[in-house]
Amino acid sequence: MFAITTDNNSDLPMTYLKEHDVGLMSLSYTVDGQTYDAHHPMPDADFYARMRAGAMPTTAQVNPEEARRVLEQALETHDCVLHIAFSSGLSGSYQSARIAAMELQEQHPDKQIVVVDSLAASLGQGLLVHIAVQMRDAGQSFQQTVDWCIENRLHVVHLFTVDDLFHLYRGGRVSKATAIVGSMLNMKPVLHVDDEGKLVAVGKMRGRKRALDDLVKRMGEQIGDYENKTFFISHGDCLADAEYVRDQVKEKFGIPDCLINFVGPSIGAHSGPGTVALFFLGKQR
């Protein structure tokens, strides 16, 4: 059996990672001068409370030393390692993992390390990890799992909305004028992640509920012939809204299982409190 590793921008619960033996590289984040990471975290609810109080967190990518540590640990007990990285379109973490993998591959020519650019974020990346775990546990080979991830990563659909455009403006995702006008008119953007793994606005709705309903509407347009057995939702400390979307999806599409978790701080620093994101397999983005 091969090892699977990822980074904390996959937003999978720590209990899931431990249960399924998934190694974790950590991106760090700094709030009010104090630095945290996945191994020494600030509770998610506290993080969003600090943001609502005016804190403006900053984030850092996975560094090569952290990547090397996690991959070396996986190589101690496995001959093959699959690392599923946060989108290269949003961070340099993929490149850090590649550098570490190439160095270790030279030192261990009898072993195999593959770093897959998920071109995904949050539980979109997490969904790719989840499917890789299922394939591994079902007895699929290392190469079959790698091939599936590469061939299907652009079928992991991301749909999300944010409550406050300021955070997207601060991260350079929307213009200042868009943020100001959108806030005045109570416009809520609907965004997705494109083929290059970057955030792209695909619509805007007046009011929060309409934006949440639009996520579900767009899911109906994009799900195609895929038979999803589960879908994932991440949220920026707005569980009731996440559960509203979950219930709408279950009612309309009959998908039985849903995993809901926080948008972690490394992404939440840029999307802000009130983010709701929906992930599933569907037509190519």
TrEMBL record:
It comes from the Bacteria. May bind long-chain fatty acids, such as palmitate, and may play a role in lipid transport or fatty acid metabolism. GO terms for molecular function: lipid binding. It comes from Butyricicoccus pullicaecorum. PROSITE patterns: DEGV (PS51482). Keywords: Lipid-binding. The keyword Kinase does not apply. It holds the Pfam family DegV. This is Fatty acid-binding protein DegV. The keyword Ubl conjugation does not apply. Coiled coil: none annotated.
